């Protein structure tokens, strides 16, 4: 029973890590209709910004805010000066561009910050809570991860459903020509979408890095499972990304603990294939099928 509880709680915190990254992908998709494969190295760069400040004596929370702000600026700059050159053209162009940006940011980070492993602090404890004589596999930082991801999910839902800005962002992404006719500044909305998505991505980078080691490729292992979680939930669904991320994390931890760690990638692929065979748009997709 103790092993099962430990496995489930470990899966919960791991799933929240996947959900955090999936939320960044959902944000960029809903606001620009682009799958940003460079989301991970963009988050990695902002995490190094925070680490540099912390190593120079700045408090964790000041560095935390600075990383989010740098993510906002980085996202806006990438959209305005790089992605905008391929907007309005084939969607494949944007995908290829973000893959190229993935490689470039990795190389630049290695040159600027170095390739060595560096310890990143956590704002809360990394030891499990004690209940009587038992230590459960849920840490103070794990609770922070859960709360942060839930808050971001609710904020994204409120942005796209309750606010005029969210409506304008979706209109600019879905039909820019009509949106322009209705007075929407499409370019500004796309820039804002990239900037806000980069903020969410920066948060995911900080949550993943807390209490562990960072290096230019530290988020690469999360990219695959985060992308799987986003697709499983439906790229249009923030709550789908969180539910799918948590579910994926728990399933993978069960496979890790009771079957074999080597089968975790296979399990993730199998889940993705099975779900997409049943619901190609994702579990929480609201896309309606047109009937002739």
UniProtKB/TrEMBL annotation:
CDD domains: TM_PBP1_LivH_like (cd06582). It comes from the Bacteria. Pfam families: BPD_transp_2. InterPro entries: ABC_transp_permease (IPR001851), BCAA_transport_permease (IPR052157). It is found in: Cell membrane. It is a multi-pass membrane protein. Keywords: Amino-acid transport, Cell membrane, Membrane, Transmembrane, Transmembrane helix, Transport. Its main location: membrane. The chain crosses the membrane at residues 6-27, 60-82, 94-116, 136-161, 182-209, 215-235, 242-259, 265-284. Belongs to the binding-protein-dependent transport system permease family. LivHM subfamily. PANTHER family: ABC TRANSPORTER PERMEASE PROTEIN, BRANCHED-CHAIN AMINO ACID TRANSPORT SYSTEM PERMEASE PROTEIN LIVH. This is Branched-chain amino acid ABC transporter permease. It comes from Mobilicoccus caccae.
């Amino acid at each position: 029973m103790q092993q099962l509880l430990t496995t489930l709680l470990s899966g919960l915190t791991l799933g929240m890590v996947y959900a955090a990254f999936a939320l960044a992908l959902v944000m960029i998709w809903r606001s620009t209709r682009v799958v940003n494969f460079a989301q991970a190295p963009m988050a990695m760069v902002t995490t190094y910004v925070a680490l540099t400040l912390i190593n120079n004596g700045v408090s964790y929370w000041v560095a935390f805010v600075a990383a989010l702000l740098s993510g906002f600026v980085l996202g806006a700059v990438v959209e305005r000066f790089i992605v905008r050159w391929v907007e309005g053209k084939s969607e494949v162009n944007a995908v290829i561009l973000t893959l190229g940006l993935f490689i470039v940011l990795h190389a630049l980070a290695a040159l600027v910050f170095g390739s060595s492993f560096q310890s990143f602090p956590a704002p809360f404890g990394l030891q499990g809570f004690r209940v009587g004589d038992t230590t459960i596999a849920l840490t103070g930082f794990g609770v922070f991860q859960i709360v942060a991801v839930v808050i971001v999910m609710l904020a994204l839902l409120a942005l796209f459903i309750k606010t005029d800005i969210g409506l304008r962002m979706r209109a600019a992404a879905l039909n820019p020509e009509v949106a322009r006719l209705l007075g929407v500044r499409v370019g500004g909305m796309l820039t804002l979408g990239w900037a806000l998505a980069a903020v969410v991505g920066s948060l995911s980078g900080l949550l993943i890095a807390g209490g562990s080691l960072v290096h230019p490729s530290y988020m690469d292992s999360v990219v695959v499972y985060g992308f799987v979680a986003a697709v499983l939930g439906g790229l249009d669904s923030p709550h789908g990304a969180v539910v799918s991320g948590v579910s994926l994390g728990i399933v993978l931890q069960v496979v890790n603990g009771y079957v074999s760690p080597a089968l975790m990638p296979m399990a993730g692929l199998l889940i993705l294939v099975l779900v997409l065979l049943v619901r190609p748009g994702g579990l929480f997709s609201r896309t309606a099928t047109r009937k002739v």
